[in-house]
Design goal:
The structure is a homodimer of 231-residue chains. The first copy, chain A, is α/β, with parallel strands linked by helices and 231 residues long. The first copy, chain A, has 9 helices and 9 strands. Chains A, B: One of its GO terms (molecular function) is cupric reductase (NADH) activity.
């Protein structure tokens, strides 16, 4: 799958880029506002990947482009943007994202406005993913990858102990994103149904942030139980 | 622990009553608006418990009282009420609940008002638990037990595959409720911190309801990962 991560220079984006790149099913592009920042991040990712003992990393490559070029190039475009800059970033990308699967990773943490990361603000549409879909009516928005901690993503020697909860109004697009999630070692992609379910998925992140702080944990995650044999 | 379950005749309340009663550390009281309904529920619970093969059920007993008497009698009082009747039920119990640990199990599912159980309404205080605390300023409110499915609770032969997330502003009270949760076979009680965190805990239930419907699952639950050795 040709997948771009816009805002791929951040912790979460870079971690996902490396994890996707570790699976030969994926072609990965890191996008950034400035091309040189994307190139720098891709270089860092390649260096970190070269240290992975358990994997033949000879043939892994990660491309680097501006957000706009990455959006044009990829089939699936992940948005890993600071929540407060979501809409302003999308302004220039709207046309390039037409007809594409756009995956919304943002969580409306109140830290974006100087309050705590254990609090959220409420988007008028109910969730960030619904806000993005409203702004990009000609794209297919899928919500996912909010709850996988970046430290775990970057700990490349170990599998991820977290499910990736996915929501969206287009069943085929959800299926594609579940498949993408499942290319990460240890991850279980779960299609949760309609995009509005993203309200609950996004709000799991502040709970995990709270547990990370309270228990000084590297990175908490979650597993859904009771779906054995049903996915 | 002497624990009362008000609204203990409902599915969730009855399931919890049976599970608590299976551990000899607990004395269980089922409360109901009408005493005869509580007696009926306790009888049903005792009958179901007598069928459990894996357990010596000779000495298990469950008491039955009106909600008011149960509130007076117990040390820890669980509220397992229909969300929309929470405040009207508490009106007569306010005095009896003074100085007690009151555990809020309610989730503000929109089904209370004829909409879907995969949607929630927003309480003015942010969560039901915070609403209950505001109404009972002289009680210590702890939020918990929202996400354990009643079908799993009633399937007495099998352990529960779900964590119980707990939140409250009084650390000692949280600890007590974590201990109570841990008396249930398979459950892992997790203190998540301040009562306001209940906002996120309560909103996991509509997500699990959605997964139950989508995948025709008996009962989904969740496990928090990344806290191994830290609880």
């Amino acid at each position: 799958m040709k997948v771009a991560i816009l805002g791929g220079t951040g912790d979460q984006g870079l971690g996902l880029a490396m994890r996707f790149a570790m699976n030969e099913a994926n072609e990965v592009i890191i996008g950034s506002r400035k091309e040189e920042k994307a190139i720098e991040a891709a270089k860092e990712a390649m260096e970190r990947l070269s240290t992975v003992q358990s994997k033949d990393t000879k043939n892994i490559s990660i491309n680097a482009m501006t957000n706009l070029d990455a959006a044009k190039e990829a089939d699936v475009v992940l948005l890993s943007l600071p929540f407060e800059y979501t809409i302003s970033t999308l302004k220039d990308l709207k046309d390039a994202l037409k007809g594409k699967i756009v995956v919304s990773l943002m969580v409306p943490l109140a830290s974006a406005f100087g309050d705590k990361p254990t609090r959220v603000i409420t988007c008028p549409q109910g969730s960030v993913a619904e806000m993005v879909q409203a702004y990009l009516p000609e794209s297919t928005v899928v919500s996912g990858f909010h709850n996988v901690c970046h430290k775990c993503l970057c700990d490349l020697e170990n599998p991820i102990n977290c499910d990736v909860l996915i929501a969206g109004d287009d069943k085929e697009a959800n299926k594609t994103v579940v498949e993408l999630a499942n290319t990460i070692n240890g991850v279980n992609g779960i299609d949760c149904g309609k995009l509005e379910i993203s309200r609950y998925i996004e709000q799991i992140t502040p709970l995990l942030v709270q547990l990370n702080i309270k228990y000084k944990a590297k990175g908490t995650g979650l597993r859904i139980t009771g779906l054995e044999g049903k996915l």
